[in-house]
Amino acid sequence: MDSIIEFIEEYGNEQVCRERFKEIRDKAGVCCKKCGSKKHYWLNGKQMYQCKSCRFRTSLRSGTVMEASKLPFRYWFVAIWLMGCSKKGTSACNVQRQLKHKRYEPIWAMMHKIRSAMGRRDNRYLLGGDIEVDEGFFETLVPEEEKQEPRKRGRGSQKQTMAMVFAQTEEVQLPKKHRPSKRCKYFKMAVCADFTVETARDTIKRHVAKNAKMITDGYSTYQSLATEFEMDVEKVPSKQAHIKLPWVHTAIGNAKKVLQGIYQHTKPEYLQNYLDEFCYKLNRRYFGNDIFDRILVACTLT
Length: 302
Known about the structure:
By secondary structure, the protein is α/β, with parallel strands linked by helices. Helices cover 40% and strands 17% of the residues. The chain contains eleven helices and eight strands. The strands form two sheets. The protein has a five-stranded mixed β-sheet. Strands 1-2-3 form a three-stranded antiparallel β-sheet, with no helix packed on it. Helix 3 (73-85) packs across helix 11 and helix 5 packs across helix 10.
């Protein structure tokens, strides 16, 4: 679907959206919450799945990102299309306005559920090969319990939340002039409560394969982990960091622009969801019109 006109023509009513969602879920399979069996049949009169083993019934929404939601299927489809087709994302206020829904909170919660599904989908995969690693500091709202404390500057500032950023790269055989010798493939961003050695170790294990070769700057945390992982640690002046780690710095800069331009006043506890959406679409930047169906699948498997 290249345009909103085609989207409206294809998903023009609630029943069409419902049937499309059921089609995707049938392919993914249904797992019984009671006995764990994956053999079900569809009860057309009840509009539910029934387990062949224990006869436990599962609704079409149950076990997916739409579970317990009272919003129409078409609302979810419109939100997914708006989030997927826009390169830099869209705000909950804009989606609420497009849907003409009275309340903001259900739309906001719906979009965060979609972002969580994107993050869980990407967390199924580990990055491998050559990986650039660095940390990014994103501006967020100051927590209520810290508003009375004296403001800090730089690392540890109450107005910033840290995230470890990973960029998987590969060598370019014939690099162009004034272009990096490596090209980017996949990205991951993980919010960290602190940057101790233990936190960095756990974050790397959750997102990076064991045989990966990492390159980073000379920060003390990385130096402590250099012997544990295959990591190239070298102190680099701040003005030259973008030369050694070009793609990870590009991703951090682009993510900051998206957050500042669209999702203003981000709370620290929701930063991971916004970064998950950014990385999900960045990792699928060449999928074109297939991005809508891919997000639908991610929402179905949650």
